[in-house]
Design a protein that fits this description.
alpha/beta, six-stranded parallel sheet, four-stranded antiparallel sheet, about 50% helix, about 500 residues, 19 helices, Isoleucyl-tRNA Synthetase, Domain 1
Length: about 500
């Protein structure tokens, strides 16, 4: 058994979660579930980022005490993860006392290493992005924030800085030596391009309390709080017990995959590895920045006011249908267009017509012909199944390890298509009419065994569906890739239920 430490970003609690947040955690859950059925011990960390002046302003606008505000919004995220069947191991909040203590210990250690200093500076500040920009950077963006194109405020003050520039050469060499540490390749090239065209400036890691009061108190100076991004990134260490449980840190660090959307790539691929390296630790192994979901040409986001509430979508189509659409529609890393029409097409074509129809009519035949009791000792793998099932067994693990979820689903549904064609070609109704019950029983056993295997492969993507399939097959299956082998001796006591995915009428 290997270890696998998986993280999502911690989500900013200035508003409730939307479909973009759901996408990141569904991806992460799929990966975590796959690693578990593969046999790895998994630690899956997610949580909420709860500091910064933007949070305090949101609380004031809501006429709510700031702590009550962050508690309520954090609970909204927890509720969504429960609804989406997200199997996280730890939900961290930056207002947790253990996290705040870890942040303080990190700053003290970096200061002892000579990596922190105090200085006056002038910069342009973007409140929505919680980011500072130089005069040159804002000029290149027509006087706006280079990230979000919104208005910036000129700030002149004294603050504490982390010597990011000291480690620029190290980071460049690290990226060169580890070409897969940032994925997909386009994001790796983006990071290198930024470093080639920009000299790293030291990172401002504090804010005066007179201007930003909601944050972790800066341990070197009680007149300051810690910059929210510096605070937030450290959750990946505090979540595994940094400063409290060294044995746990040693077990899980470095992280195997940091998953996030591409708009926070720079923080994770530049700031974070340098911060960790300065602490004397190895960086996380992979930073994977996925694409955005768009409506038309616009990114779905709170700031644009075009958010999609995943709870509303779940009420309409169900959890696993949403999970399937998000994981199947686009390769991980690409942008995708979100629309009701695209979702309905996937549900009707893939879920209702293919897997839903296969399961329902196979169980219907098992009940009709054998009262649901189907077993045999000579359920050999049909020659019609061999090529498709072999492709699955050979490629599935590599595709999932590579986070090529859409391709893995394509293979699974290719095998489902083979089984549906097998029904049409074999014509079981004719076998029954001819009273060829022995061949009919073997035929149904072959289909039920194929469906059992499909349920294992589908489990990381649609866990509730896999569990429902096995309940209808009348088996108590342990979800493990050790159980994907074809069984010549198989028995099922089927209990047909309602169709897994009813078609959606678009007339």
């Amino acid at each position: 058994m290997g270890k696998f430490y998986l993280t999502t970003p911690i989500y900013y609690v200035n508003a409730s979660p939307h479909i973009g947040h759901a996408y990141t955690n569904i991806i992460s859950d799929c990966l975590g579930r796959f690693k578990r059925i593969k046999g790895d011990e998994v630690f899956f960390l997610t949580g909420t980022d709860e500091h910064g002046e933007k949070i305090k302003k949101a609380a004031l606008a809501d006429n709510t005490d700031v702590l009550d505000f962050v508690n309520n919004v954090s609970d909204n995220f927890k509720n969504l993860w429960e609804k989406l069947n997200i199997s996280y191991d730890c939900f961290i909040r930056t207002t947790d006392s253990a996290h705040k203590e870890a942040v303080k210990q990190v700053i003290i250690k970096l200061n002892e290493n000579g990596d922190i200093y105090k200085a006056k500076y002038s910069a342009f500040y973007c409140m929505p992005c919680e980011s500072f920009w130089t005069d040159t950077q804002t000029k290149d963006a027509n006087g706006k924030c280079p990230l979000c194109s919104r208005e910036v405020e000129k700030v002149e003050e004294e603050n504490y800085f982390f010597k990011l520039s000291k480690y620029e050469d190290w980071l460049k060499q690290y990226l060169k030596d580890n070409p897969d540490c940032v994925r997909p390749k386009t994001r790796y090239n983006e990071v290198n391009g930024f470093l080639d065209n920009n000299k790293l400036a030291d990172l401002c890691i504090s804010r005066p309390k007179a201007r930003v009061s909601w944050g972790v108190e800066f341990p070197l100076d009680c007149e300051y709080v810690v910059y929210v991004w510096f605070d937030a990134l450290l959750n990946y260490l505090s979540g595994i017990g940094f400063g409290v449980d060294q044995e746990k840190v040693d077990k899980w660090w470095p992280a195997d995959v940091h998953l996030m959307a591409k708009d926070i790539l720079r923080h994770h691929a530049i700031f974070w590895p340098i911060m960790v390296h300065a602490l004397g630790l190895a960086p996380g192994k992979i930073v994977f920045a996925h694409g955005w979901w768009k409506i038309g040409d616009e990114k779905i986001s709170k700031s644009l006011g075009n958010i999609v509430n995943p709870l509303d979508v779940i009420k309409e189509i169900g959890v696993d249908a949403l999970r399937y659409f998000l994981l199947r529609e686009i390769p991980l890393g690409a942008d995708g267009n979100y629309s009701s029409e695209a979702i309905i097409t996937r549900i009707n074509s893939d879920l209702a017509n293919d897997v839903g129809n296969l399961v329902y009519r196979t169980l219907n035949m098992a009940e009709k012909y054998f009262q649901g009791d189907v077993s045999c000792d000579d359920c050999l793998l049909p020659v019609e199944f061999k090529q498709s099932l072999q492709a699955l067994s050979v490629r599935y693990i590599n595709l999932m390890d590579d986070l090529s979820f859409s391709k893995a689903l394509e293979l699974i549904f290719s095998f489902i298509g083979v089984m549906n064609k097998y029904i049409e070609d074999t014509k079981p109704w004719a076998l029954h009419k001819e009273n060829n019950l022995s061949r009919l029983k073997v035929f149904l056993c072959e289909l039920l065994e194929g469906i059992r295997i499909v349920s294992l492969y589908l489990y990381p993507f649609m866990p509730q569906t896999s569990e429902a399939i096995n309940k209808q097959l009348g088996i108590d299956l342990i979800f493990s890739l050790d159980n994907i082998q074809w069984r010549a001796k198989a028995g099922f006591s089927t209990k047909k239920g309602k169709p897994l995915f009813p078609r959606i009428d678009v007339s």
